[in-house]
Every structure is written in C-alpha cells, then in structure tokens.
Amino acid sequence: MYDSEVAEIWDAIYTGRGRDYGAEARDVAELIRKLRPDADSLLDVACGTGEHLRHFRGLFGHVEGVELSGDMIAVGRQRSPSLPLHQGDMRSFDLGRRFDAVTCLFSSIGHMRTTAELNAAIGRLAAHVGPGGIVVVEPWWFPDTFADGYVTGDVVRSGERVIGRVSHSRREGDVSRVSAHFTVAEPEAGLRHFTEELLITLFTREQYEDAFRTAGGTVEHLPQGPAGRGMFVGVFS
Q1: Full DSSP string of 121-169
Q2: pLDDT tens digits, residue range 94-103?
Q3: CA–CA distance, 80 with 148 (Å, rounded to integer)
Q4: What would the pLDDT profile of 129-164 be if each residue is shown by its tens digit?
Q5: Pick from 226, 104, 214, 200: nearest CA to 143
Q6: What is the tens place of the pLDDT at every residue in 111-121?
Q7: What whole-number distance in Å separates Cα of residue 83 and Cα of residue 63?
Q8: pTM of the model
Q9: How much is the pLDDT for 104?
Q10: What are phi and psi of 117, to 5 degrees?
C-alpha cells in the first residue's frame, strides 16, 4: 500500500486539489480542546508523510506519528528529520506510552477489512490515550452515502513537475474499489504513468460507534469534516 511512487507525490496532489492540512490540524486541535482543554500531546495514526503532524507540532507540546507504509515514512523523515515517526500497523501497534489525544485522519480507518479489524484498530487507538483522552477518527463513506461509480480528476503543478490523477470508485458489496491512474511529467525524467487500486470498507455508522464503545469510550459523530464524511470523537475514562 502506498509505494514510493505514490508516496512521493501524495501531498502535492492533495494540496493541489485544495486540501488544507494546516486548517484541518487547527480544526481538529480546537475540537480536542473543547473536550480536553489541557491536551498537550498528540499521536497521529496512519499519518502518511506527516503533513498533518507538521502542523500539529505547532499546536501541541509533543506529537508523534504511526504509519504502516515504509515509503511514506521515508518521505516524511526526509522532509522533517526531527519528527518522531514510527512504522506500525494500526491493528497491533504499541508505543508503550499514552497521549492526551489520538487522531486517525484521511479515512485511513476504512482500510480495515472486517468489523474485527475495525474493533482492533479502535482498541489500539484507545489504548494510547490516558484518562480523559480523546480519540478522533475521520471515517470513510457509509454504505448509504457512498456514490457508486464516482469519477474525479485533477491536474496539479508542483514546482517544475505536473501531476495528473483520475479515479473511478465502484461498490462491491460492503467494499468500495477505488482505481486511480497517475501521470507525472518532469523536465528531465519525462513522462511516467502508474496505477493504484484500493479496497476501502463501507462500515456503517453503527459499526464505528460499536467499536468505540467496545474499546470503553463514549462516542459522537459530528457531521462536519475535511472531506464531508464527518468525524467520530470518542472520550475514554
């Protein structure tokens, strides 16, 4: 998942498409501090290259990240060598310490394939917050909000590099298959093309909420969110 070709251009694509990592980090920090005003440490799980973390670092006294893709981590460490990034699977990671808040953004939780995996992942997020800790999860689409057959495309410029991405999403039972094609044009390297195929589970709102409660927390689904999919906010005693 997310090999070196995708990791290298990931942030350029989404920034070019209008995703504002700084604004999202500020919104999430504000949400956390409404429930936990003294929150000063944060762990971002499935942090990618650490783009949200770079902004969280200015909002919290201590931040760390966990990411499954070694290529994503390599890009993140190259950009910000001092940013603490750990390679780990959200279903099983254990950093041996707790934080005031844990986040899992960009709908990364949707890569869990079953409710057992969803429960395991939410359980590991919860295990990394102390008493009164906050867990914020940005879900993927629900079965009743997913747009079957959705297509989109963008061309963005990053320095001298031009990146094109087109994608098609279709429903296959309780899973969405997202197929994307990328074209990258660079002055010296010329043109290259590669593809990405993702299976992202369409969990129901109730399945997400059950996972939070199974992990011992209370949970609320907020309709606002960076990509229109809302946010689950859990509080753990």
Answers
A1: HHHHHHHTEEEEEEEEE-----TTT--TT-EEEEEEEETTEEEEEEEEE
A2: 999 999 999 9
A3: 38
A4: 999 999 999 999 999 999 999 999 999 999 999 999
A5: 200
A6: 999 999 999 99
A7: 8
A8: 0.95
A9: 98
A10: -70, -40
**Lookup result for tokens 């499954």:** 68
Dmax over CA atoms of the chain, in Å, equals 56
pLDDT of residue 224: 82
Average pLDDT over residues 101-106: 97
CA distance 53 to 58: 9
- Report the alpha-carbon distance of residue 195 to residue 233 in Å, rounded: 34
Given the structure tokens 């005693």, which residue do they identify? 237
Match domain 4-142+204-236 to its CATH number in 3.40.630.30, 3.40.50.920, 3.40.50.10420, 3.40.50.150: 3.40.50.150
Domain residue spans of the chain: 4-142+204-236, 151-201
Q: Are 76 and 48 in contact (CB under 8 A)?
A: yes
CATH code of the domain occupying 151-201:
2.20.130.10
Distances (CA, A) of 92 to 20, 47, 88, 106, 138: 30, 16, 8, 19, 19
What the block records as the tokens of 89 is 């699977």
- 3-31 per-position pLDDT tens digit: 678 888 988 998 888 889 999 999 999 99
Residue 2 pLDDT grade (very low, low, confident, very high; cuts 50, 70, 90): low
Task: Report d(CA 47, CA 73) in Å as an integer.
Answer: 9
Number of Cα atoms under 13 Å in the Cβ half of residue 3: 6
